[in-house]
Amino acid sequence: MKRMALLGVLVATPAAAQGPAPALIGEGQRLAQQWCANCHAVAPGQRPPAGDAAASFPAIAALPSTTEMSLRVFLQTPHAAMPDYRLSRAELDAVVAYILSLRR
Questions:
Q1: 91 CB burial (10 A radius; 0-12, 13-18, 19+)
Q2: Distance of alpha carbon 11 from alpha carbon 71, whole angstroms
Q3: What is the pLDDT of residues 62-102, one digit of tens each?
Q4: For residue range 19-32, what is the model confidence (pLDDT) as tens digits?
Q5: Which residues have CB under 8 Å from 83's CB, separation 6+?
Q6: Domain range holding 91?
Q7: What confidence category does residue 18 fall into, taking pLDDT thresholds of 50, 70 and 90?
Q8: Does residue 4 register a pLDDT over 90?
Q9: What is the CATH number of the domain that holds 84?
């Protein structure tokens, strides 16, 4: 019972309401530029790689079905058309935070 009360307090704190730290989002952007920009336009206004059909990160972020959980599941599931980067937990946190930041 104490754990549930503590969880309620943590979720209601201003830090939880503010979202991910800018440093985490910045790291996600750096990782996206390094690993994802060969196939995806990873920033708003960025031109997609020539001849590529991969969705842009801003378009992915704008989908109603895009949630933190859906991104985590997708990025941890091997896909034939996508390289298997085996993101660490910290890298996954950063990339997910960056993609979701593009909704703003």
A1: middle
A2: 21
A3: 999 999 999 999 999 887 778 878 899 999 999 999 999 99
A4: 789 999 999 999 99
A5: 35
A6: 20-101
A7: low
A8: no
A9: 1.10.760
What type of residue sits at position 40?
Answer: H
**What is the distance between the alpha carbons of residues 55 and 65, in angstroms, rounded to a whole number?**
14
Long-range contacts of 7-12 (CB under 8 A, 24+ apart): none
| 77 domain residue, yes or no | yes
Task: Assess whether pLDDT exceeds 80 at residue 11.
Answer: no
Distance CA 19, CA 62 (A): 17
Q: Tell me, yes or no, whether 40 lies in a domain.
A: yes
Residue 79 φ/ψ, nearest 5 degrees? -130, 140
Q: Is residue 61 part of a domain?
A: yes
